[in-house]
Amino acid sequence: MNSRRLPPALPVLTLLAMLGPVVAGLWGTLLPAFGHLPAAGLTGPSLDPFVELFDWAGLPRAAMLSVTTGLGATAVSLLIVTLITAGWSGTRAFRLLERMLSPLLSVPHAAAAFGLAFLIAPSGWLARLVSPDLTGWERPLDLLIVQDTWGLTMTAGLIAKEVPFLLLITLAALGQTDASRSLAIAQALGYGRLTGWLKTVFPRVYAQIRPPIYVVLAYSMSVVDVAVILGPNTPPTLSVQIVKLMSDPDLAMRLEGAAGALLQLSLVIGALVVWRLGEVAIGALGRRWIAAGHRGRLDPVIRQTALGLGMISALTIFLGIAVLAIWSFAGYWGFPDAFPDQLTFRNWLRHGPGTLEALGETALIAVTVSLVALILTIGCLEAEYRYGLPVTQRGIWLLYLPLLVPQTAFLPGLQTLMLQVGANEGRLPVMLAHLVFVLPYVFLSLADPFRAWDVRMGTVAAALRASPNGVLWRVRLPMLLGPILTALAVGMAVSVGQYLATLLIGGGRVETLTTEAVALSSGGDRRAIGVYGLMQTGAALVPFTLALLIPALVWRNRRGLWRG
Amino acid sequence: MDKGLSLRNVVISKDGASLVSVHHDIAPGDVLTIMGPSGVGKSTLLAFITGTLAPAFDAQGTVCIDGQDITHAPPHRRRVGILFQDDLLFPHLSVGANLAFGLRPGGAQSTRLEKINNALDEIGLSGFADRDPATLSGGQKARVALMRMLLSEPCGLLLDEPFSRLDAALRAQVRDMVFERARARLLPVLMVTHDAEDAQAAGGQIITLA
């Protein structure tokens, strides 16, 4: 109806940037999986790649590991988050957890995984702290804790990282449910706090956090960096095996890799179906439980347990980073000493130049990708505002779609496709691949504050003769400086943490802190890993800190914009 | 008629049900008050006039300001000022910058500065140019919001429950100031409110919606 100048091209571009690589990648996986790879002189269709894949003796175990670690990590982290929120939301302990959320979230998966490994390995920090006084161990036990055959440590590492993510999502959903009044009524009817919350609030919250839970499931089943660091080796998880095949100099191995990628995709789809059926079953049981009217006599016990588990999961990450820091400065550190004999800068001097180079690459990619994602996001949200587009549940699922397709299913295909069209592997394709993962998170981070902005401000500004672009640039964006910088920081943290996209699409030639750190894992040089892991964490954490500091500084004389 | 704000056969409906229908000319310096309980669509009428009606509503009829049809004009070209019950001062701008936002562009920096200082003098807030609007009292904020709107030299004025957030003592004072300035500048005023006292104080015709 009005001449509104912002081009609606941005939403279309955003969808293309988010879904284009996923669709192209799946296509690029499908063809070689059925024996069609002209670049290697092979034309299909044939089922040979699948035959070879199924001939691999490790396959049943690798596939099962993918399913058990994924389902286990998702279920346990959801359970912890649900019980903590049920038992503690609104209390002081809960606010403490909330405050730890941002730093916990920004720690990259790889750094958290290394931290966990350095903590709980037989020669890890925990063993050192209690040995030999309590245990009598003079040398590390010969026990396979890290990289255990069942993938338990890997599952634990995933849980530690997914708990803060799910808690964040739950908090956002909680804001949109009338939780406190429902809980007050339930408690007035004699229900315990935890049981009352589960029976009245949880169903509403769950309906809202369902998409991110599916993302966690798909991610946990197909994660590569955490699996390389913490997961079993003989055989590895299916995703790790796919990456091995895709990195083989023999192009023919890519066919088997592509077949594996399709299998991975179907496993994830199968697991999502199982999860959905589980939802139905638990829903039915839950309704009976609600109807039975139990007030929750075990509440206090469960409540304390949940808080304990949540604290352990948070502590794991913080202590993990602490032990990475110690190792990065460690001189000689023999078992079972709790601390190194001396602290030294030697490790930093030795690995510093290498990390700085990787840091430059990491920062260049992260900043570029996050800025592009931010521009696209603001374009979408502003178009939504100017054209009065409705926000639908379907639109939200679209946003989560690129995160639901397992990385190991479409990234190998994207790499193969690039190979076929002769595109150069390098920084630019890596950036485009990062954008697929960064965009949804930047969008999800900015969407709520952007939409919550009082549109009457826009009406007033327009009545003062400010054009739509004038309103955007002179009023809306400055007012949203804080959330915008936070969204940028989220995007940068996601980009910094990307392993597979960098490795595969960069053809091994784009070296970021994450690819370098994960590459070190096989060598077992704890000092080098400490340096790289700490740098990786810093690269993700610094933007978050700036996102807090800059608005506080810029708006120090504008009390109306102080947050929280 | 040429001057003033005219609503001709305006009907706003949602899902086929009519919410508001108005056919009225407001002469320069006159006030039309539309009264009714909240939720009957008073504010949608103002949204229609400012050009910010949500797509869920259907609107028919025309809006003219000083004889010019603005029904389909973009919001920033309508020359209609609006005050809400909240002051809606831009929190990221100083008091002076808020006024400068309203002031029409052009003119030397020094002239603009002078105009802003004069405006501050006029509302009894001399020397407040660099203040953070969040540090002002409710009455001071209301005065800045009014002055910001007047500096944009609108041809008509819309009031959306403008005094309902102010406490009783302040209320009459701010109300008198708004109507006085509007009359002095010969602005046609359309006010929606649920408050009978505000409607009486406006001194113009009152349309009551059920």
From TrEMBL, chain A:
InterPro entries per UniProt: MetI-like, MetI-like_sf
A GO BP annotation: transmembrane transport
Cellular component GO terms, alphabetical: plasma membrane
Domain ABC transmembrane type-1: 59-274, 359-554
Keyword Cell membrane: yes
Transmembrane portions of the chain: 62-89, 110-130, 150-174, 213-231, 261-285, 306-330, 363-383, 395-414, 426-447, 480-501, 529-555
Protein's UniProt name: Putative thiamine transport system permease protein
Species, as recorded: Yoonia sediminilitoris
From TrEMBL, chain B:
Keyword Nucleotide-binding: yes
Assigned keywords, A-Z: ATP-binding, Nucleotide-binding, Transport
SUPFAM superfamilies: P-loop containing nucleoside triphosphate hydrolases (SSF52540)
Superkingdom of origin organism: Bacteria
InterPro entries, sorted: AAA+_ATPase, ABC_SmlMolc_Importer, ABC_transporter-like_ATP-bd, P-loop_NTPase
Pfam family membership, one: ABC_tran
Protein name: Putative thiamine transport system ATP-binding protein
Organism from which the protein derives: Yoonia sediminilitoris
Lineage: Bacteria, Pseudomonadati, Pseudomonadota, Alphaproteobacteria, Rhodobacterales
